[in-house]
Amino acid sequence: ADEHRSPWFVRALVAVSAWIASLMLLAFVYGSRIVSSSGGHILLGALLVGGALYLRRSQGKVLFLVQLALALSLAGQALLISGIGDRLRTAGAALTAIGMSVALILLYPDKTHRFLSTLIAVVAAVFLVYDQHIAYGLHVLVVALAGVAGYVWHEESRLAVGGIDQVIRPVGYGLITGMFFLLVPSVVPPEFRTRYGLAQTWLPATAALTTLLMYFEYRLLVFHGALRNVRVAVFLFLGTIGLALASLKAPGIIAALYMLAVGFHRANRIIVGISITFLVVFLSGFYYNLDITLINKSYILLGTGAILIVLRIFLAAVDSSLYFLLRYD
After folding, report:
1. Nearest alpha carbon to residue 124 among 143, 101, 152
2. Per-residue pLDDT tens for 125-156?
3. Are 130 and 139 in contact (CB under 8 A)?
4. What distance separates the 2 farthest-apart alpha carbons in the chain?
5. Which of 85, 53, 59, 98 is nearest to 72 (CA)?
6. Rounded to whole angstroms, how far apart are CA atoms 305 and 104?
7. Where are the alpha helices (DSSP H) in the chain?
8. For residues 318 and 310, is the Cβ–Cβ distance under 8 A?
9. Minimal CA–CA distance to 95: which of 118, 127, 72, 119?
């Protein structure tokens, strides 16, 4: 029990040792050719996942065993999914991964594992979309993740009633992270999109994410009692539409602003940090993909910097008066 009060670097070394132990176990299994068929993969994977679940639930206070169980669970899931993939192909493996991830989110009492299970389910859903050749499936998946993540965090306090906050929060972080990584191909140069079969147009995703952002803004205005302030509402909605029109081919910018608003509303620094990080990524990609000369890009950077400096001064000057309008008008 005292291990949880150890310094962070001690816990990190223990975690690394647990991962090494699990990798050595897998190396032994493959090197000795114990597993030579898809059925063997499935059986061993199920045994590893079941053993990891038992180990975590029964020895949850020993840090080494907690990390060992986590590593064994991930290794077991990989074996199980690969074995089922050999028999049922991509669609069967993807559906298995999604179902198993949902079950482990509920059964496996570990925040890190629940976060990773959410990401595994997202990746499996992407494979399912590409395998079934679903038109605009990636767009639908991105918007669904954004909508569910926004709902989870907006209603976090209500959903956490009953002691399920240990499930809600890691799943919420996983949904946000998965959504952002699915949007990374939107800033990939066009020649790479063509080569690797990535989505060529992102206009539907941008339109849907803009709708989500404006709906969330409406909810915030109602929450703060500021909807009747016409100036604030018009400025907010017109500004959002203007940003959307300027970034039609970069839905990640709108998604990052959406989650940034959610993070500020919930006073959650982790969400704010993730959103700002990906906002920088998407803005950099948007700037890089502009089909203009380098000198014109330099002029745009100079102009943008000057505008942001002036805007910073302006916002600092009106911050107190704007707060007064939102709070008391």
Report:
1. 101
2. 998 988 887 778 888 999 999 999 999 998 88
3. no
4. 74
5. 53
6. 47
7. 8-31, 38-58, 63-107, 111-131, 137-154, 156-159, 165-183, 190-196, 203-223, 230-246, 251-265, 269-288, 294-328
8. no
9. 127
CB atoms inside a 10 Å sphere around CB 191: 8
The token pair that represents 280 in the structure block: 């920088």
Helical axes 38-58 vs 63-107, angle rounded to 10°: 110
> Average pLDDT in the 179-188 region?
87
For residue 73, give the amino acid letter. S
Task: Collect all residues with Cβ–Cβ distance below 8 Å to 57 and sequence separation of at least 6.
Answer: 109
pLDDT, mean of residues 42-71: 85
Q: Which amino acid is at 326?
A: L
Query: What CA–CA distance (Å, rounded) separates 318 from 88?
Result: 61
At how many degrees (to 10) do helices 137-154 and 203-223 cross? 10
DSSP 2: G
Residue 33: what residue type?
Answer: R
- Predicted TM-score (pTM) of the model is 0.80
Residue 201 tokens read as 């147009």
- For tokens 């990798």, what's the residue? 23
Q: What's the start-to-end Cα distance of the chain, in Å?
A: 54
Nearest residue to 185 (alpha-carbon basis) of 272, 255, 85: 255
At 91-106, the pLDDT tens digits run 888 999 999 999 999 9
**Placement of tokens 């991509």 in the chain:** 90
C-beta neighbour count of 146 within 10 angstroms: 28
User: Tokens at residue 236, please?
Assistant: 């907010």
